[in-house]
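Long-time lurker. I teach an intro course on protein structure, and each term I like to show students one example going from raw sequence to a predicted 3D structure in token notation. This year I'd like something fresh instead of my usual example. Would anyone be willing to generate the tokens for the chain below so I can use it in lecture? Attribution to the forum is fine with me.
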Amino acid sequence: MNRYYTTHEASKLLGVSLPTVVNWIGERRLRCHRTPGGHRRIAREELAAFMVRHGMPLPSELGDADPGRRKALVLGEMGPPREGLTRQLAQLGWAVESASHGFSAGAALARYQPHLVVLLPSRADGGETLAALRHDREAGRTPVLAVGPAPWRGALEHAGASAVLTFPAPSEQLAEALEGLAPGVPERSPAPARTKAPRAPRATRTPATAAKGRAATGSGRSR
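-- Reply from a regular --
Happy to contribute to a lecture. Here you go:
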């Protein structure tokens, strides 16, 4: 896992050209630092924050750049509906990854471990994807928000969807449903307070030790 990215690597993750990344850096929209050799490097946390600010879906490589953010996995066939829903979630502040139905869905779920699954069903009952989610011991605990045609609502609820929205879902309704299924952001553990090393206690001078000190000083002077 990279901690820092070159401008070329960043352009690949952002899906833009190298000159565009250089321009964003020049405009101070994207922060970076320079190596002793003068090469630009972008921290992965900064790259992830930039993508979130601009509503860009985070790739899996950056999904854990901010461990405090909630993660959503969008399952559906590749195309404009899935891309649009992924973009909506990113704009609402979620870390998002997407996958197709079938084996890809199971693999993505095990690897990404989302707080919530957003399902674009291919059938009224959610198909094999929803059935597999609900029968899996671990995945069965993950809330599933199904987004599909209005006539499918009853069948999707009966099949085990935690909540159902009609596609296309307005951002306000989507945000409300997400908050109801996975409220809040996991709290980060507070940083431990920095404590100073205790000072060694000063030696206390009793009358007896003070007298000995004066006697030793006096004998030293008489020599």
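Some talking points for your students: Residues 68-185 form a domain with the Rossmann fold fold (CATH 3.40.50.2300). The chain has two domains: 1-56, 68-185.
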